[in-house]
Amino acid sequence: MSRTFTTPVTVACNICGSSKSTPVTVQNTCTLVRCVDCGFVYVNPRPADSAYKDLYVDYLPDRMDDPFAWKRYMAEVFTKTADMIETAIPEKGTSLDIGCGFGFFVEEMKERGWTASGIDISAKAVGFASKRGLDVRLGSISMEASGAAEGSFDAITMFYVLEHLPDPLAFLKKVRSLLKPGGVLVIRIPHTTPIVRLLTIIGIKNNLYDPPFHLSDFSPACTRNILEKAGFIETCQVIGGATLPENTGPRLVSRLSNVVADILLFLSGGRLLLSGVSKTTLARRPLS
Fold this sequence. Notes:
The protein is an alpha/beta fold.
């Protein structure tokens, strides 16, 4: 979707603070750059923060006709994420899903015996989840309306949220404060740059970065870096399951790429994370 913003703002790298960058590409009239110092890829310049409320009026999940399509799409990812959390925290506890959409991961954790809740900016999604008996609250992505005190949760999850945020580092610091000491954060984020680079080399135009909805692209190294700067420890990155599109072709591609990624991760002893595949990352708040 092509959009023109009258008041774009220039920003520094959110991870290391550097203002030195090199162009990567232009998509949807937005320029993506790479930080010279740490390699972080982000939109710069970008819409002012005040523009985002209107920007997301017609964004998913509000434009999704069948909410259960998202459940089918994310089913494997949700199951593997819940398994990761329960391995890290054996005792049933409290969980919060930020950007919970229609509440399907909240439902997953609730069915496992957790005190599970969620927050989302979509009134349609929150209404759907609430009618199904889930503890889901309408609130800002900045968590101004989360209603949670510091140290409230054993586990916090964010599926495809971090790449949308104007200030992901500050957000992660806020999330860290909401976790109990020893609590875990699990994030699911795309890594688009390698695919865009390949398509550019062979001359195929694309809008895979999806700006200005997506403002950042996180490589495994940048993901570890920003989590460490936000005060997290014990970062563990895995493939975390395949997303499953409705159409057969994309579903097969997703399944095959994730099988290959899992094999490479196993054979490399957990060191090699296949570029271009979305990944799930777990990190922990220190005990002190």
